[in-house]
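User: Reviewer 2 asked us to show a designed sequence for the structure in our supplementary figure. I'm pasting the structure tokens here. Could you produce the per-position amino acids so we can include them in the response letter?
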């Protein structure tokens, strides 16, 4: 099983280091992790982490093992302990970070958006690793989420019957479960992600950073997140590579090399239905505003009582 595999690998790695023969795998340095609300530039983040230094960087983008570890105890840790989830994640990351390539040095992860609810387990497992949370204007992210043939099948709606965190959120509102539509559930789903991120950002005392999506997101990575938060150097060659890949729509991974990123924020707002706007205002906007004001935001917005 995993525990036995980790114990054997750790012993082998330790013996290899002790012998000074340099014939065993190394364990890459976990430099940074990206959590996100979804539909907010996270794919560009993953592509940028790889493009910055393809030889030295290993990047996992929404791979299955970490989310299985983080959610193995339930998103409210009702099936086993927070410590058990953290231990499992630590073992998974250890195995995924072993390398026989002498050029590889740094390890990065972009986790699935759902892992944000169990972020506390990650912080327990890796208490010194910096991380960011990417998020976006409420109406914009909801429009992206609900751009499906049937809103009931949207990712932000499907968990309404299975998530104890969503049900707990609803009990704190004036609404009953049966009163809510798909747009409401989508906003609530996203609000629970943002609320978990905000709480962990506050508790992490600088290791977590809130990053609002913008058309200039690539420069946030190059000028702040990489050099000052993930402590990863940015040289001219790496910068040029990142800027080149950011010139395409991130989901296409370079297949539209001639195209440039075109922000769609205003179009999304213009086309939003009344149901989306009402749900965003009621459930998602308040926590978005709190993230904006966080002292650990990449560019905090001044609160009303400070202006």
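Assistant: Here is a per-position design you can include in the supplement:
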């Amino acid at each position: 099983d995993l525990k036995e595999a980790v114990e054997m690998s750790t012993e082998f790695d330790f013996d290899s280091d002790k012998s000074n023969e340099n014939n065993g795998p190394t364990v890459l340095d976990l430099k940074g992790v990206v959590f996100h609300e979804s539909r907010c530039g996270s794919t560009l983040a993953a592509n940028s982490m790889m493009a910055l230094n393809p030889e030295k960087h290993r990047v996992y983008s929404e791979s299955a093992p970490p989310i299985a570890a983080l959610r193995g105890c339930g998103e409210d840790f009702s099936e086993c302990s927070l410590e058990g989830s953290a231990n499992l994640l630590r073992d998974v990351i250890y195995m995924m970070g072993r390398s026989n390539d002498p050029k590889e040095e740094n390890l990065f992860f972009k986790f699935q958006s759902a892992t944000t609810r169990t972020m506390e387990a990650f912080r327990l497992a890796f208490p010194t690793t910096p991380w960011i949370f990417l998020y976006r204007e409420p109406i914009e992210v909801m429009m992206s989420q609900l751009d499906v043939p049937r809103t009931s099948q949207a990712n932000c709606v499907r968990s309404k019957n299975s998530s104890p965190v969503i049900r707990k959120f609803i009990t704190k509102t004036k609404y009953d479960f049966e009163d809510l539509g798909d747009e409401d559930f989508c906003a609530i789903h996203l609000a629970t992600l943002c609320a978990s991120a905000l709480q962990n950002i506050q508790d992490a005392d600088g290791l977590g950073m809130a990053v609002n999506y913008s058309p200039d997101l690539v420069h946030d990575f190059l000028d702040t997140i990489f050099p000052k938060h993930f402590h990863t150097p940015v040289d001219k060659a790496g910068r040029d590579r990142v800027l080149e890949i950011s010139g395409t729509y991130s989901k296409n991974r370079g297949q539209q090399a001639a195209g440039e990123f075109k922000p769609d924020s205003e179009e999304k707002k213009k086309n939003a239905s009344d149901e989306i706007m009402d749900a965003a205002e009621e459930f998602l906007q308040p926590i978005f505003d709190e993230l904006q004001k966080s002292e650990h935001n990449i560019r905090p917005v001044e609160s009303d009582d400070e202006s």
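For the response letter, you might also mention the following. The beta strands are 26-27, 29-36, 57-61, 98-99, 106-110, 131-135, 208-212. Residues 248-261 have pLDDT under 50 and may be disordered.
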